[in-house]
Amino acid sequence: MAKVPVQFTLNGSDKAEFVDSGTTLLHALRDKIGDTSPKGGCHQGTCGACSVIIDGELRLSCLTLAETCNGATISTTSGLSESGVLHPLQRAFLDTFATQCGFCTPGMIMAAKVLLDHTPNPSRDEVVEALSGNICRCTGYEPIIQAVLTAARSNSQNAA
Amino acid sequence: MALALQTYATVKDANAALKAAGTRYLGGGTLVVRAANEGDVSVSGLIRSTEPSLSTIAVAGDKVRIGASVTMAAIAHHPDLDALAKAARAVGGPAIRNMATVGGNLFAPAPYGDFAVALLALDATISTDDGDTPIETFLANRDGSRAIVTSVSFTLPKADSFRFLKVSRVKPKGVSVLSIASVLERSPDGTVSSARIALGCMADRPMRAIAAEKALTGRSLTKDSIAPALAAARDGTSPITDPIASAWYRNEVLPVHLGRLLLA
């Protein structure tokens, strides 16, 4: 099958690859570019483990074709930390024990990041709504919700 | 499994390409890429169009035209489409709503397709390059439909006349046990002058509760008065059975939820 070029910005860096036409963004990120932070869970759009942010919107990379992302700006969890310092969401997930097996965590964090980017001080209900497309099967949702609320408080304290 | 994707600037060219065997139209990807990921070998090629009109919402007075590529998130956030926001938000989680399109929802098999239930209650018109089709006719023939849907059009419901309810076991979001949408016109004395009720998950695609609509006409919205409509709600239904609920269960709870919607 003919390869097609894909070119986008991933976590601030320009990326260019040749992929088979019809390759999912998840496959391109993990197996071509080497960013394994988005996870392949259900491949059905149900679990949210593959969630990434494309041009500011939360998307499922398992259902997005890579070649439809030409020119896009993509963010994944692997690009959140700066100079070895964890992003407040990552710090909060660790501090509040919101990650157990960790498989859902990158998707949860990207869903939470979109929420906090638009709503810096969300209510608990808004957090629940924002995470409603992400499934966790071991940690339990309560610590995850608390982690997002903790990160929001941390952000607002830092901004004050 | 990789699929060849062909992108066309116009719907006309995309329609021509879609005549090839094994091709499917790619909207937001939540149905067709999902099918491919699941191993649906009938899909060998994907076609899409980037024609700008597919992604626009036009509201003129009470007339609404929504391009087929418009997402559920765009509808939920549109200032003139408040009445439909609840139905748009009923679809999936935030990521799915950023991807799932109006056009795709018309083809979503039960238990999906909650927004199409709302469109059926609104008596929407479905447009393709071949012309316009009433949504009921379109849904009945959708399995053989090959022409790309370009837009859906409808008249905005008068204030408070449109109601929507999605029932799911998981809160706040879950797959539908069933969904109900209704447009109820009322006379000055409060009685229902016309009713249009659409059901999701009560067949393999959205369907109207025509017997309930007839039983409701001329009645007021009180517990006793709606009883005949609730008794007729199951008329003609053929609910799906899936891991969420059995057909029997869906039929049992339909009158309960229709009653809650009507008395809300």
Automatic annotation (TrEMBL), chain A:
It comes from the Bacteria. The keyword Oxidoreductase applies. GO terms for molecular function: 2 iron, 2 sulfur cluster binding; metal ion binding; oxidoreductase activity. Keywords: 2Fe-2S, Iron, Iron-sulfur, Metal-binding, Oxidoreductase. The keyword Oxidoreductase applies. Residues 4-80 form the 2Fe-2S ferredoxin-type domain. This is Carbon-monoxide dehydrogenase small subunit. It comes from Rhizobium loti. The lineage of its organism: Bacteria, Pseudomonadati, Pseudomonadota, Alphaproteobacteria, Hyphomicrobiales.
TrEMBL record, chain B:
Keywords: FAD, Flavoprotein, Oxidoreductase. It comes from the Bacteria. InterPro entries: CO_DH_flav_C (IPR005107), CO_DH_flav_C_dom_sf (IPR036683), Diverse_Substr_Oxidored (IPR051312), FAD-bd_PCMH (IPR016166), FAD-bd_PCMH-like_sf (IPR036318), FAD-bd_PCMH_sub2 (IPR016169), Mopterin_DH_FAD-bd (IPR002346). Residues 1-159 form the FAD-binding PCMH-type domain. GO terms for molecular function: FAD binding; oxidoreductase activity. PANTHER family: XANTHINE DEHYDROGENASE SUBUNIT C-RELATED. This is CO/xanthine dehydrogenase FAD-binding subunit. It comes from Rhizobium loti (Mesorhizobium loti).
